[in-house]
Amino acid sequence: MAASGATDKTIDAAWLKGGALPRLLAALDTNGEEARAVGGAVRNALLAEPVHEIDVATTAMPDEVTRRVTAAGFKAVPTGIAHGTVTVVIDGAPYEVTTLRKDVETFGRHATVEFGRDWEGDAHRRDFTINALSVTRDGKVHDYTGGLADLGDRRIRFIGEAKARIEEDYLRILRFFRFHATYGAGEPDAEGVAACIAARAGLAQLSRERVRTEMMKLLAARRAVPALQVMAEIGLLLDVIGGVPNVVHAARMAELEQALALPADPVRRLAALAVVVAEDAERLWQRLRLANKEYERLAGMAEGWRRISPDLSGQAQRVLIYRLGPELFADQALLGFARAQAQANDAAWQALATLPQRWSAPAFPLKAADFIKRGVAQGPALGAALRAAESAWLAADFPSDAAAVGRIADQAAKS
Protein backbone atom coordinates (compact mmCIF):
# COMPACT_ATOMS: atom_id res chain seq x y z
CA MET A 1 0.00 0.00 0.00
CA ALA A 2 1.25 3.50 -0.86
CA ALA A 3 2.18 6.09 1.74
CA SER A 4 -0.73 7.37 3.76
CA GLY A 5 -0.68 10.93 2.48
CA ALA A 6 -1.91 11.92 5.95
CA THR A 7 -1.77 15.61 6.82
CA ASP A 8 -2.25 17.53 10.04
CA LYS A 9 -5.50 18.82 8.59
CA THR A 10 -8.70 17.52 10.11
CA ILE A 11 -12.40 17.91 9.36
CA ASP A 12 -14.83 18.55 12.18
CA ALA A 13 -18.04 17.99 10.23
CA ALA A 14 -21.40 16.92 11.61
CA TRP A 15 -21.79 14.28 8.89
CA LEU A 16 -18.59 12.56 10.10
CA LYS A 17 -19.80 12.44 13.70
CA GLY A 18 -23.47 11.61 13.48
CA GLY A 19 -26.11 10.22 11.20
CA ALA A 20 -25.70 7.38 8.73
CA LEU A 21 -22.13 7.88 7.51
CA PRO A 22 -20.33 6.86 10.72
CA ARG A 23 -22.43 3.67 10.76
CA LEU A 24 -21.46 2.93 7.16
CA LEU A 25 -17.76 3.59 7.77
CA ALA A 26 -17.84 1.46 10.90
CA ALA A 27 -19.14 -1.48 8.86
CA LEU A 28 -16.48 -1.09 6.17
CA ASP A 29 -13.46 0.23 8.08
CA THR A 30 -12.56 -2.88 10.05
CA ASN A 31 -11.02 -6.38 9.86
CA GLY A 32 -8.21 -5.48 7.46
CA GLU A 33 -10.21 -3.15 5.21
CA GLU A 34 -10.27 0.64 5.15
CA ALA A 35 -12.95 3.11 4.08
CA ARG A 36 -12.92 6.88 3.73
CA ALA A 37 -15.16 9.67 2.55
CA VAL A 38 -13.74 11.03 -0.68
CA GLY A 39 -14.09 13.76 -3.26
CA GLY A 40 -16.60 16.59 -3.22
CA ALA A 41 -17.79 16.16 0.37
CA VAL A 42 -14.23 16.55 1.66
CA ARG A 43 -13.54 19.51 -0.63
CA ASN A 44 -16.72 21.33 0.34
CA ALA A 45 -16.28 20.68 4.05
CA LEU A 46 -12.81 22.23 3.93
CA LEU A 47 -14.21 25.23 2.04
CA ALA A 48 -17.16 25.56 4.44
CA GLU A 49 -19.48 24.97 1.47
CA PRO A 50 -22.70 22.92 1.67
CA VAL A 51 -22.21 19.16 1.33
CA HIS A 52 -24.99 17.62 -0.76
CA GLU A 53 -23.78 14.05 -1.19
CA ILE A 54 -21.06 11.89 0.32
CA ASP A 55 -19.13 9.27 -1.61
CA VAL A 56 -17.08 6.56 0.05
CA ALA A 57 -14.01 4.67 -1.21
CA THR A 58 -12.86 1.39 0.27
CA THR A 59 -10.22 -1.29 -0.05
CA ALA A 60 -12.95 -3.94 0.20
CA MET A 61 -14.09 -5.68 -2.97
CA PRO A 62 -17.69 -5.07 -4.11
CA ASP A 63 -18.95 -8.46 -2.94
CA GLU A 64 -17.39 -7.87 0.49
CA VAL A 65 -18.96 -4.41 0.62
CA THR A 66 -22.33 -5.98 -0.13
CA ARG A 67 -21.85 -8.67 2.51
CA ARG A 68 -20.81 -6.18 5.19
CA VAL A 69 -23.50 -3.57 4.64
CA THR A 70 -26.22 -6.19 4.37
CA ALA A 71 -25.06 -7.69 7.67
CA ALA A 72 -25.26 -4.22 9.19
CA GLY A 73 -28.90 -3.95 8.14
CA PHE A 74 -28.40 -1.60 5.18
CA LYS A 75 -29.66 -2.05 1.63
CA ALA A 76 -27.04 -2.74 -1.06
CA VAL A 77 -27.90 -1.85 -4.68
CA PRO A 78 -25.44 -3.04 -7.40
CA THR A 79 -25.54 0.19 -9.43
CA GLY A 80 -22.05 -0.13 -10.92
CA ILE A 81 -20.52 -3.44 -9.92
CA ALA A 82 -18.37 -3.59 -13.08
CA HIS A 83 -16.73 -0.35 -11.97
CA GLY A 84 -16.64 -1.33 -8.32
CA THR A 85 -19.59 0.74 -7.14
CA VAL A 86 -22.31 -0.35 -4.76
CA THR A 87 -24.99 2.11 -3.69
CA VAL A 88 -25.76 1.67 -0.01
CA VAL A 89 -29.11 2.99 1.20
CA ILE A 90 -29.33 3.93 4.88
CA ASP A 91 -32.44 5.56 6.31
CA GLY A 92 -33.52 6.36 2.76
CA ALA A 93 -30.28 8.19 1.87
CA PRO A 94 -27.96 6.73 -0.83
CA TYR A 95 -24.18 6.52 -0.48
CA GLU A 96 -22.00 5.41 -3.37
CA VAL A 97 -19.27 3.05 -2.14
CA THR A 98 -16.53 2.35 -4.67
CA THR A 99 -13.60 -0.04 -4.41
CA LEU A 100 -10.19 1.55 -4.98
CA ARG A 101 -9.18 1.32 -8.62
CA LYS A 102 -6.26 1.81 -10.94
CA ASP A 103 -6.27 2.30 -14.70
CA VAL A 104 -4.89 -0.50 -16.81
CA GLU A 105 -5.77 1.15 -20.11
CA THR A 106 -7.49 4.49 -20.70
CA PHE A 107 -9.60 5.46 -23.68
CA GLY A 108 -12.07 8.13 -22.71
CA ARG A 109 -14.86 7.16 -20.33
CA HIS A 110 -14.42 3.46 -21.08
CA ALA A 111 -11.11 2.93 -19.30
CA THR A 112 -10.13 -0.58 -18.28
CA VAL A 113 -9.57 -0.65 -14.53
CA GLU A 114 -8.45 -3.08 -11.87
CA PHE A 115 -9.46 -3.03 -8.25
CA GLY A 116 -6.70 -2.39 -5.76
CA ARG A 117 -5.72 -1.22 -2.31
CA ASP A 118 -3.60 1.78 -3.23
CA TRP A 119 -5.12 5.04 -1.96
CA GLU A 120 -2.53 7.17 -3.71
CA GLY A 121 -3.06 5.40 -7.02
CA ASP A 122 -6.80 5.85 -6.72
CA ALA A 123 -6.35 9.56 -5.98
CA HIS A 124 -4.25 10.00 -9.11
CA ARG A 125 -7.12 8.63 -11.23
CA ARG A 126 -9.26 11.65 -10.39
CA ASP A 127 -9.55 14.85 -12.40
CA PHE A 128 -8.52 17.79 -10.19
CA THR A 129 -6.36 17.96 -7.10
CA ILE A 130 -9.16 19.46 -5.00
CA ASN A 131 -11.33 16.43 -5.82
CA ALA A 132 -8.72 13.86 -4.78
CA LEU A 133 -8.81 14.45 -1.02
CA SER A 134 -10.05 11.76 1.36
CA VAL A 135 -10.89 11.71 5.06
CA THR A 136 -10.93 8.87 7.56
CA ARG A 137 -13.71 8.48 10.07
CA ASP A 138 -11.62 10.20 12.76
CA GLY A 139 -11.49 13.33 10.57
CA LYS A 140 -7.89 13.00 9.33
CA VAL A 141 -7.45 14.39 5.81
CA HIS A 142 -5.25 12.58 3.28
CA ASP A 143 -3.79 14.49 0.34
CA TYR A 144 -1.67 12.81 -2.36
CA THR A 145 -1.85 15.44 -5.10
CA GLY A 146 -1.43 18.87 -3.50
CA GLY A 147 -5.15 19.47 -3.24
CA LEU A 148 -4.95 21.24 0.13
CA ALA A 149 -2.55 23.85 -1.22
CA ASP A 150 -4.72 24.34 -4.29
CA LEU A 151 -7.80 24.72 -2.10
CA GLY A 152 -5.99 27.40 -0.12
CA ASP A 153 -5.14 29.21 -3.35
CA ARG A 154 -8.57 28.59 -4.86
CA ARG A 155 -6.83 27.06 -7.86
CA ILE A 156 -8.29 24.35 -10.09
CA ARG A 157 -5.44 22.15 -11.29
CA PHE A 158 -5.47 18.89 -13.17
CA ILE A 159 -3.77 15.95 -11.47
CA GLY A 160 -0.54 15.12 -13.26
CA GLU A 161 -0.43 16.08 -16.94
CA ALA A 162 -3.48 18.10 -17.93
CA LYS A 163 -3.42 16.74 -21.49
CA ALA A 164 -3.57 13.15 -20.26
CA ARG A 165 -6.43 13.85 -17.84
CA ILE A 166 -8.48 15.48 -20.60
CA GLU A 167 -7.88 12.67 -23.08
CA GLU A 168 -9.39 10.27 -20.52
CA ASP A 169 -12.66 12.21 -20.73
CA TYR A 170 -13.13 15.33 -22.86
CA LEU A 171 -15.93 16.51 -20.59
CA ARG A 172 -13.12 17.55 -18.24
CA ILE A 173 -12.61 20.58 -20.48
CA LEU A 174 -15.99 21.92 -19.40
CA ARG A 175 -15.55 20.65 -15.84
CA PHE A 176 -12.30 22.60 -15.58
CA PHE A 177 -14.12 25.86 -16.26
CA ARG A 178 -17.16 24.87 -14.21
CA PHE A 179 -15.05 24.09 -11.16
CA HIS A 180 -13.10 27.30 -11.65
CA ALA A 181 -16.37 29.24 -11.81
CA THR A 182 -17.61 27.49 -8.66
CA TYR A 183 -14.53 27.24 -6.46
CA GLY A 184 -11.70 29.14 -8.15
CA ALA A 185 -10.33 32.64 -7.85
CA GLY A 186 -8.19 34.81 -10.10
CA GLU A 187 -7.07 33.57 -13.49
CA PRO A 188 -7.55 29.88 -14.31
CA ASP A 189 -4.51 27.61 -14.25
CA ALA A 190 -2.48 28.35 -17.38
CA GLU A 191 -1.50 24.75 -18.07
CA GLY A 192 -5.10 23.70 -17.76
CA VAL A 193 -6.30 26.39 -20.16
CA ALA A 194 -3.63 25.49 -22.71
CA ALA A 195 -4.57 21.82 -22.54
CA CYS A 196 -8.26 22.66 -22.99
CA ILE A 197 -7.45 24.72 -26.10
CA ALA A 198 -5.37 21.94 -27.59
CA ALA A 199 -8.01 19.29 -26.95
CA ARG A 200 -11.17 21.26 -27.71
CA ALA A 201 -11.98 19.21 -30.83
CA GLY A 202 -12.72 16.37 -28.44
CA LEU A 203 -15.87 18.15 -27.29
CA ALA A 204 -17.53 16.92 -30.48
CA GLN A 205 -17.28 13.35 -29.14
CA LEU A 206 -19.41 14.13 -26.08
CA SER A 207 -23.11 13.48 -25.79
CA ARG A 208 -25.23 16.61 -25.89
CA GLU A 209 -26.82 15.67 -22.56
CA ARG A 210 -23.47 15.66 -20.76
CA VAL A 211 -22.50 19.01 -22.29
CA ARG A 212 -25.84 20.51 -21.27
CA THR A 213 -25.45 19.33 -17.67
CA GLU A 214 -22.00 20.89 -17.31
CA MET A 215 -22.99 24.14 -19.01
CA MET A 216 -26.06 24.63 -16.83
CA LYS A 217 -23.97 24.07 -13.70
CA LEU A 218 -21.34 26.49 -14.99
CA LEU A 219 -23.88 29.16 -15.85
CA ALA A 220 -25.29 29.01 -12.31
CA ALA A 221 -21.89 29.28 -10.61
CA ARG A 222 -20.93 32.32 -8.57
CA ARG A 223 -18.03 33.25 -10.87
CA ALA A 224 -19.64 32.14 -14.11
CA VAL A 225 -18.93 35.38 -15.95
CA PRO A 226 -15.10 35.38 -15.68
CA ALA A 227 -15.06 31.72 -16.70
CA LEU A 228 -17.33 32.41 -19.69
CA GLN A 229 -15.11 35.31 -20.69
CA VAL A 230 -12.03 33.06 -20.86
CA MET A 231 -14.00 30.37 -22.71
CA ALA A 232 -15.15 32.97 -25.24
CA GLU A 233 -11.64 34.33 -25.73
CA ILE A 234 -10.19 30.90 -26.53
CA GLY A 235 -13.07 29.86 -28.79
CA LEU A 236 -14.61 27.18 -26.57
CA LEU A 237 -17.99 28.87 -26.18
CA LEU A 238 -18.42 29.09 -29.94
CA ASP A 239 -17.87 25.33 -30.13
CA VAL A 240 -20.36 24.65 -27.35
CA ILE A 241 -23.27 26.92 -28.28
CA GLY A 242 -22.75 26.99 -32.04
CA GLY A 243 -23.04 30.76 -32.24
CA VAL A 244 -21.29 33.95 -31.22
CA PRO A 245 -21.60 34.43 -27.45
CA ASN A 246 -22.37 37.78 -25.83
CA VAL A 247 -20.62 37.61 -22.48
CA VAL A 248 -21.37 41.29 -21.80
CA HIS A 249 -25.10 40.58 -21.69
CA ALA A 250 -24.55 37.46 -19.58
CA ALA A 251 -22.57 39.61 -17.16
CA ARG A 252 -25.41 42.11 -17.08
CA MET A 253 -27.89 39.36 -16.25
CA ALA A 254 -25.71 38.21 -13.37
CA GLU A 255 -25.43 41.82 -12.18
CA LEU A 256 -29.20 42.26 -12.29
CA GLU A 257 -29.78 39.05 -10.34
CA GLN A 258 -27.51 40.36 -7.64
CA ALA A 259 -29.09 43.82 -7.63
CA LEU A 260 -32.59 42.33 -7.34
CA ALA A 261 -31.59 39.60 -4.86
CA LEU A 262 -32.60 36.87 -7.32
CA PRO A 263 -31.01 33.41 -7.41
CA ALA A 264 -28.68 32.62 -10.29
CA ASP A 265 -30.83 31.31 -13.14
CA PRO A 266 -28.86 29.35 -15.77
CA VAL A 267 -31.65 29.54 -18.38
CA ARG A 268 -31.88 33.34 -18.16
CA ARG A 269 -28.10 33.60 -18.26
CA LEU A 270 -28.00 31.33 -21.32
CA ALA A 271 -30.60 33.53 -23.00
CA ALA A 272 -28.55 36.64 -22.28
CA LEU A 273 -25.44 34.89 -23.56
CA ALA A 274 -26.79 33.39 -26.75
CA VAL A 275 -30.46 34.13 -27.60
CA VAL A 276 -31.48 37.13 -29.68
CA VAL A 277 -34.05 35.61 -32.05
CA ALA A 278 -36.20 32.48 -32.03
CA GLU A 279 -33.74 30.57 -34.21
CA ASP A 280 -31.12 30.88 -31.46
CA ALA A 281 -33.41 29.14 -28.99
CA GLU A 282 -34.10 26.38 -31.51
CA ARG A 283 -30.37 25.88 -32.14
CA LEU A 284 -29.56 25.64 -28.43
CA TRP A 285 -32.45 23.22 -27.89
CA GLN A 286 -30.99 20.85 -30.44
CA ARG A 287 -27.32 21.46 -29.73
CA LEU A 288 -27.53 21.03 -25.95
CA ARG A 289 -30.52 18.68 -25.86
CA LEU A 290 -32.27 21.07 -23.51
CA ALA A 291 -35.33 20.03 -21.57
CA ASN A 292 -38.57 21.13 -23.21
CA LYS A 293 -39.27 23.56 -20.37
CA GLU A 294 -35.85 25.17 -20.84
CA TYR A 295 -36.42 25.54 -24.57
CA GLU A 296 -39.88 27.03 -24.03
CA ARG A 297 -38.42 29.65 -21.69
CA LEU A 298 -35.68 30.53 -24.19
CA ALA A 299 -38.18 30.73 -27.05
CA GLY A 300 -40.49 32.90 -24.94
CA MET A 301 -37.67 35.28 -24.11
CA ALA A 302 -36.60 35.45 -27.76
CA GLU A 303 -40.16 36.31 -28.78
CA GLY A 304 -40.80 39.11 -26.36
CA TRP A 305 -37.72 40.75 -24.85
CA ARG A 306 -37.73 43.62 -27.37
CA ARG A 307 -41.33 44.68 -26.74
CA ILE A 308 -41.20 44.93 -22.96
CA SER A 309 -39.97 48.09 -21.25
CA PRO A 310 -40.91 50.56 -18.51
CA ASP A 311 -42.47 52.71 -21.25
CA LEU A 312 -45.51 50.41 -21.17
CA SER A 313 -48.39 51.71 -19.09
CA GLY A 314 -49.13 50.03 -15.80
CA GLN A 315 -52.26 48.51 -17.29
CA ALA A 316 -50.32 47.16 -20.28
CA GLN A 317 -47.74 45.62 -17.93
CA ARG A 318 -50.47 43.89 -15.96
CA VAL A 319 -52.09 42.59 -19.15
CA LEU A 320 -48.75 41.08 -20.15
CA ILE A 321 -48.48 39.28 -16.81
CA TYR A 322 -52.01 37.95 -17.39
CA ARG A 323 -51.18 36.81 -20.94
CA LEU A 324 -47.66 35.49 -20.36
CA GLY A 325 -47.74 34.29 -16.79
CA PRO A 326 -45.43 35.66 -14.09
CA GLU A 327 -42.34 33.60 -14.95
CA LEU A 328 -42.23 34.43 -18.66
CA PHE A 329 -43.03 38.09 -17.92
CA ALA A 330 -40.06 38.23 -15.52
CA ASP A 331 -37.85 36.38 -18.04
CA GLN A 332 -38.67 38.85 -20.81
CA ALA A 333 -38.34 41.86 -18.54
CA LEU A 334 -34.95 40.77 -17.19
CA LEU A 335 -33.60 40.00 -20.66
CA GLY A 336 -34.84 43.37 -21.90
CA PHE A 337 -33.28 45.02 -18.85
CA ALA A 338 -29.97 43.23 -19.49
CA ARG A 339 -29.88 44.57 -23.05
CA ALA A 340 -31.09 48.08 -22.23
CA GLN A 341 -28.88 51.11 -21.79
CA ALA A 342 -29.83 51.39 -18.14
CA GLN A 343 -27.99 51.01 -14.86
CA ALA A 344 -28.68 48.01 -12.66
CA ASN A 345 -30.27 50.31 -10.08
CA ASP A 346 -32.65 51.92 -12.60
CA ALA A 347 -35.88 52.22 -10.59
CA ALA A 348 -38.27 51.92 -13.53
CA TRP A 349 -36.67 48.78 -14.91
CA GLN A 350 -36.42 47.24 -11.46
CA ALA A 351 -40.10 47.93 -10.84
CA LEU A 352 -40.99 46.29 -14.15
CA ALA A 353 -38.86 43.19 -13.57
CA THR A 354 -40.21 42.66 -10.07
CA LEU A 355 -43.87 43.44 -10.79
CA PRO A 356 -44.88 39.73 -10.66
CA GLN A 357 -43.60 39.64 -7.08
CA ARG A 358 -46.04 42.40 -6.10
CA TRP A 359 -49.07 41.74 -8.31
CA SER A 360 -50.81 38.54 -9.35
CA ALA A 361 -53.27 38.43 -12.21
CA PRO A 362 -56.82 37.53 -11.17
CA ALA A 363 -58.80 34.86 -12.99
CA PHE A 364 -61.23 36.01 -15.68
CA PRO A 365 -64.53 36.15 -13.79
CA LEU A 366 -66.93 35.20 -16.62
CA LYS A 367 -67.84 31.72 -17.83
CA ALA A 368 -69.74 30.36 -20.80
CA ALA A 369 -72.85 29.98 -18.62
CA ASP A 370 -72.90 33.76 -18.04
CA PHE A 371 -73.45 34.29 -21.78
CA ILE A 372 -75.79 31.40 -22.37
CA LYS A 373 -78.18 32.84 -19.81
CA ARG A 374 -77.93 36.14 -21.70
CA GLY A 375 -79.19 34.40 -24.84
CA VAL A 376 -75.92 33.68 -26.63
CA ALA A 377 -76.11 30.38 -28.54
CA GLN A 378 -73.45 27.74 -28.06
CA GLY A 379 -70.91 27.57 -30.87
CA PRO A 380 -68.84 30.27 -32.57
CA ALA A 381 -70.97 33.07 -31.18
CA LEU A 382 -70.31 31.94 -27.62
CA GLY A 383 -66.56 31.84 -28.20
CA ALA A 384 -66.64 35.29 -29.77
CA ALA A 385 -68.58 36.70 -26.81
CA LEU A 386 -66.10 35.23 -24.32
CA ARG A 387 -63.15 36.70 -26.21
CA ALA A 388 -64.79 40.10 -26.52
CA ALA A 389 -65.64 40.15 -22.83
CA GLU A 390 -62.12 39.15 -21.82
CA SER A 391 -60.63 41.91 -24.00
CA ALA A 392 -63.00 44.48 -22.49
CA TRP A 393 -62.21 43.25 -18.97
CA LEU A 394 -58.46 43.59 -19.60
CA ALA A 395 -58.91 47.04 -21.14
CA ALA A 396 -60.82 48.08 -18.01
CA ASP A 397 -57.85 46.94 -15.87
CA PHE A 398 -59.31 43.78 -14.31
CA PRO A 399 -62.47 45.07 -12.56
CA SER A 400 -63.75 42.73 -9.87
CA ASP A 401 -67.05 44.31 -8.76
CA ALA A 402 -70.13 42.46 -9.94
CA ALA A 403 -71.77 45.48 -11.55
CA ALA A 404 -68.79 46.29 -13.78
CA VAL A 405 -68.31 42.66 -14.76
CA GLY A 406 -72.05 42.39 -15.53
CA ARG A 407 -71.93 45.42 -17.83
CA ILE A 408 -68.99 43.90 -19.69
CA ALA A 409 -70.93 40.64 -20.10
CA ASP A 410 -74.07 42.47 -21.29
CA GLN A 411 -72.14 44.41 -23.90
CA ALA A 412 -70.26 41.37 -25.17
CA ALA A 413 -73.49 39.37 -25.43
CA LYS A 414 -75.02 42.03 -27.66
CA SER A 415 -72.06 42.37 -30.01
Largest sheet, spatial ordering of strands: 1-10-9-2-3-6-5-4
CATH architecture verdict of the largest domain? 2-Layer Sandwich
Number of strands: 10
Largest sheet, in brief, is: 8 strands, mixed
Mean pLDDT: 94
| Total helical elements | 23
CATH superfamily of the largest domain: Beta Polymerase, domain 2
Could you name the ranges where pLDDT drops below 50 across 5 or more consecutive residues?
A: none
Q: Tell me, what's the shape?
A: elongated
Keywords:
Beta Polymerase, domain 2; cca-adding enzyme, domain 2; 4 domains; eight-stranded mixed beta sheet; two-stranded antiparallel ribbon; elongated
Q: What does it look like?
A:
By secondary structure, the chain is of the alpha+beta class. The chain has helices at residues 14-17, 20-28, 40-46, 62-71, 119-123, 147-153, 162-168, 171-183, 190-198, 208-220, 224-233, 236-241, 247-259, 266-274, 278-288, 292-304, 314-324, 326-338, 347-353, 355-358, 368-372, 380-395, 402-414, and strands spanning 6-10, 35-38, 55-58, 75-80, 85-90, 93-99, 101-105, 112-115, 134-135, 140-142. The protein folds into four domains: 6-151, Beta Polymerase, domain 2, CATH 3.30.460; 154-243, Orthogonal Bundle (cca-adding enzyme, domain 2), CATH 1.10.3090; 246-361, no CATH class; 368-414, no CATH class. The relative contact order is 0.06.
